[in-house]
Fold this protein.
Amino acid sequence: MELEQCKDHFLCIDSNCFNRFINTLIDIYKQNLYEYNNIVKKYGYYLKPIHIVTKRRGLNTKTYVYYGRYWYKLYSNGSRIKWIYIGLTKPLKELPDPPINPLTFITISLDQDLRTCICIDEKHRNVLRTLISSTINGEDNCINRVAKLLLYS
């Protein structure tokens, strides 16, 4: 998405601050996934918090990181646990909905000065506000500034 197309809330920041903000979102999401898995383990299912795929083509290497995407059925055989891949969708209707991935609600682009720009559309702003409200007023001024400008302005 071009910055000009972002009609809602956007902020351009340096790459160090951007990385800290994104890592904070990822940390919050991973914690929510761990808590969620504690709830659904009684059903024998597991939503894999992180899945990393590395693809090599010649001298080039690409790494893809997926968060909260793949479902597994867990079987225990004595001291061993066997994971059986189930798929991408929630396997049982009775299971509570998994936590929302905050990264799906933001668009990232570069401005003409090569600063990283974050765009959050209005309809997802409240979801992100709820997810990161606990990090605001922490010790990291960058996170506070980004969160307050994007979510409360």
About this structure: The chain has one domain: 3-152. Helices lie at 15-40, 122-132, 141-152. The first strand starts at residue 9 and ends at 13.
